[in-house]
Design the sequence.
């Protein structure tokens, strides 16, 4: 009995410590913002930071405190309409496009609300009886992972928000420039042969995971090849210079319509001045580094690029984007990650090549923690998928419609939020996320 109590106390301490660490991190990443920067929503997809901070707090109030007998305040009800993102079962909510249009609650009030939620969550964790502890542990963990998703979103959103200012007036998010490798020759892109067969897909490592990573299942893969690194800026520039954005035959029809409607001529954040390319980063403008992985492009651009490579290089005639299952199986077998330059924890806030110049043992570089990689797969349920019970059934399942899956995490993904089976998903035209391209090839 004593052992059970000690174990239980320790589990509470561990979970509470993780909760507090995540909450502190969210506030810390906003510490350098100026008042106006908390409030802006330049496009529907980009929520303002005030909302991010409030919504993640509301999530704990609504899904943890209210469900398990925690303390409830008038603010919980008052903010319900504003801070509910998309949970139809929880009632009416502010249209997503209006998050930048409201001036109340003030940013100070949102910070006060966060503090109130933190106090009440801590009280609940410390006092809940052992019978209800498993339910609290389950819901609190989802809330923590949810907030980490919003931490990644924050970096992509503030990058986009700051980029709306005229170039001479732009303020960078961080003062110090991203550290980067000195310019060096990129290793030619090589393809790693991956034996096919019946493979295991999904949450096979048995870690905590979202409902959409389950059930783990077997899937038959035909042998294939996967590029051993991400596509670089230099390689993408060749596509641009060869008229890739002007050749309709390279594009899916919806992609061509997007490219035309938005006058795409290069990835998001690329700007050419006097013939010289530069890119907007969280550390301000940087020269376009040829051997850095290309980032901030849509599925349509990634797909057109792959088609262009297959048509212009004889040795790559079978090139395409990988399916999500091809990506996951190869990552599990051959993926390597250099923690020093990967994930949010590395602090680079920018994708960096991890591929050694010299020939090395065949391995797949930059698989995790550099850029989310577009796959050819539509976001669909795995066979036998069951959504989370209750309100949280809306978390993932209802978005399994007309979106593409991305794999790999990025330089702004918290490391302890990620697994190889992690499935990200966005509409095919999305460019403001830290997205990149890895090519695949049919085996000969
Ligand atoms: Fe959310």
Sequence:
């Amino acid at each position: 009995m004593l052992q059970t109590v000690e174990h239980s106390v320790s589990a509470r301490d561990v979970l509470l410590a993780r909760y507090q660490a995540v909450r502190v991190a969210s506030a810390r990443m906003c510490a350098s913002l100026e008042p106006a920067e908390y409030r802006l929503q330049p496009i529907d997809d980009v929520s303002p930071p005030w909302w991010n901070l409030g919504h993640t707090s509301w999530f704990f109030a609504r899904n943890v405190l209210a469900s398990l007998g925690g303390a409830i305040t008038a603010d919980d009800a008052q903010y319900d309409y504003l801070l509910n993102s998309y949970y139809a079962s929880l009632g009416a909510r502010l249209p997503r496009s209006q998050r930048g249009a409201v001036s109340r609650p003030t940013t100070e009030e949102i910070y006060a609300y966060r503090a109130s939620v933190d106090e009440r969550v801590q009280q609940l964790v410390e006092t809940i009886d052992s019978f209800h502890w498993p339910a609290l542990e389950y819901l609190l963990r989802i809330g923590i992972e949810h907030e980490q998703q919003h931490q990644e979103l924050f970096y992509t959103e503030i990058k986009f928000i700051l980029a709306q200012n005229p170039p001479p007036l732009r303020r960078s998010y961080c003062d110090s420039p991203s550290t980067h490798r000195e310019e060096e020759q990129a290793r030619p892109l090589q393809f790693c042969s991956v034996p096919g067969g019946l493979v295991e897909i999904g949450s096979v490592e048995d870690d905590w995971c979202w409902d959409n990573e389950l059930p783990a299942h077997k899937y038959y893969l035909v042998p294939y090849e996967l590029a051993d690194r991400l596509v670089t800026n230099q390689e993408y520039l060749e596509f641009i210079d060869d008229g890739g954005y002007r050749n309709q035959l390279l594009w899916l029809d919806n992609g061509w319509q997007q490219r035309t409607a938005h006058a795409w001529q290069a990835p998001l954040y690329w700007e050419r001045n006097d013939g010289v390319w530069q890119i907007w980063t969280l550390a301000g403008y940087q020269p376009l580094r040829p051997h850095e992985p290309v980032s901030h492009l849509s599925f349509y651009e990634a797909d057109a690029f792959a088609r262009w490579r297959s048509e212009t290089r004889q040795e790559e005639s079978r090139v395409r984007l990988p399916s999500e299952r091809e990506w996951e199986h190869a990552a599990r077998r051959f993926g390597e990650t250099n923690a020093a330059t990967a994930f949010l924890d590395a602090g680079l806030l920018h994708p960096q090549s991890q591929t050694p110049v010299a020939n090395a043992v065949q391995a797949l570089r930059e698989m995790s923690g550099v850029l989310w990689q577009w796959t050819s797969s539509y976001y669909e349920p795995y066979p036998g998928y069951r959504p989370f019970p209750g309100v949280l059934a809306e978390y993932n399942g209802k978005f399994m419609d007309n979106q593409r899956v991305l794999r790999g995490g990025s330089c702004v993904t918290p490391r302890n939020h990620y697994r190889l089976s992690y499935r990200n998903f966005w509409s095919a035209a999305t460019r403001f996320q830290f997205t990149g391209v890895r090519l695949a090839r049919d085996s000969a």
Residues 133-162 form the longest helix (30 residues). The two ends are 62 Å apart (CA to CA). Confidence is low (pLDDT under 50) at residues 1-7. The longest strand covers residues 372-378.
